[in-house]
Write a structure and sequence with these properties.
Helix content is 0%, strand content 43%. It is mainly β.
């Protein structure tokens, strides 16, 4: 993207409020629909309905989403609800063994990690900014060597980071 330019429409946009079916629809003009792996149920969401997954073997995935490759600047945002303090993976693109990024919740922090094979990973921790058993909003980005992460309207925490060399798929 040229300096000073902006994207007027998202690359992918999932409402996750569909009540049934084996996938969740991307609302963009060139869709990257998500496929359900395991059991995903519909629950009351922050706005309309939401997709609920209970363990690592249950998730929404798009393994061929080439348009989601995060090899340079990227941003993402969404809502999450954790019903226990154990935390877990909220969103990820790619894999830890290769290249990609992952947003996780620990017992008290949000952590954004980018992976670039073979050079390793970079993590950014946002301490104490989410609440158990309520809806939380997150936003993150990578641009010009900087990672940024925010939750529930907090100021962005930033740090040095690297973009994934290549990645495919989101889960």
């Amino acid at each position: 993207m040229a300096s000073g330019s902006s994207i007027t429409t998202p690359t992918a946009f999932w409402n996750l409020d569909q009540a049934s079916g084996s996938s969740r629809t991307d609302s963009c003009s060139t869709p990257a629909n998500l496929t359900i792996a395991g059991t995903v149920t519909q629950v009351a969401g922050k706005i309309s309905n939401a997709a609920s997954v209970s363990t690592g073997s249950n998730y929404l995935s798009n393994i061929s989403a080439g348009k989601l490759n995060a090899t340079s600047s990227f941003s993402f945002c969404g809502w999450f609800y954790l019903d226990n303090s154990a935390g877990g993976t909220i969103a990820k693109l790619g894999s830890m063994a290769a290249s990609g990024w992952k947003l996780t919740a620990s017992t008290t922090n949000l952590v954004l990690t980018t992976y670039q094979s073979p050079s390793g990973s970079t993590s950014l921790t946002l301490p104490g900014t989410y609440t158990i058993s309520t809806w939380n909003f997150f936003a993150g980005y990578f641009s010009s060597g900087t990672l940024g992460l925010s939750a529930n309207g907090s100021a962005f925490t930033t740090g040095a980071g690297t973009a994934p060399a290549s990645s495919s798929g989101i889960s």
